[in-house]
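Quick check before the chapter quiz. The format below is the same one you will see on the exam, so make sure you can read both the input and the output lines.
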Amino acid sequence: MTDQQQADLRHDEVQAGTTTGLASPSVDVTSDRQNSLWSDAWAYLKRSVFFWIGAVLTLLFIVMAVFPQLFARGQDPRACDLANSKARPSADHWFGYDVQGCDYMSNVVYGARNSLIIGIFAVLVVLVLGVVVGAIAGYFGGVTDGVLSRIADIFYALPLILGALVLLRVGPQTDIPIINSRGPGAVALALALFGWMTAMRLVRSQVIAVKSSDYVAAARAMGASNSRILVRHILPNAVAPVLVYTTITIGVLIAAEATLTYLGVGLQRPAFSWGLQIEAGQDSIRSAPHLVLFPSIVLTLTVMAFIMMGDALRDALDPRQRA
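Here is the expected output.
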């Protein structure tokens, strides 16, 4: 069969489908566009030095949080000897000793677990609140949008640190460490409660921009429910800016937890926390600067890793941001 005959045959098949009322094969334009977006983004990320630096540091700190004994060099963080109090770093003890005479490197290493748990758990709660409230407000609009947006404005009136500080101050005390007013769960929830509004605004604006698209109108005309339209057609197109925000926010929330702990309203001893270590070492900064220096460096690198990854993702998903 010649090329011309094949072309005529395809033409006849299309015409037959039209006259008989049979639907011709459809192309999932939305899926193709999303695949192209993520393919282009990954191609850009593979060439981004900042993304790989952030990714390697993030992976390092995650492994440190999950397997702290691999980085503690066999030292027990609770094995202390006052004779070694504030001893300087040495070849055997790279970070020196803390005020109680405990190996400081093992203390800093074990502090990664609580910081990452709080940061990741808090950002998950932020995503749930932000995506759900933002999607409902943007999709239904009208009175629903007005009420939910005003509720977000009320939370915006209190800064993140101040709101979480007040909530942790008045929170109830329980015998369950993870959910009492000074446990990791309570700190994460307090941060999430005053940090979900930006995610809500991002999702809301994306949903408003997407809901008038032709493929959404087609899905609605075919009888798709509101929940199906939101989950299958709208939210996949709104995920890019939320992903960028989420990556950066993990670093921000880790820094916020350290700030609250430093102020005395976050985690409490005997928990391991970089904020606790910085707070304990501030009085000895002249005689033993390593007590503040090392946890500060690790905290800074952790926050920087997530922010670098977020910046790289933003540039990859929005070509207009690229230099």
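If your answer matched, good. The two ends are 52 Å apart (CA to CA).
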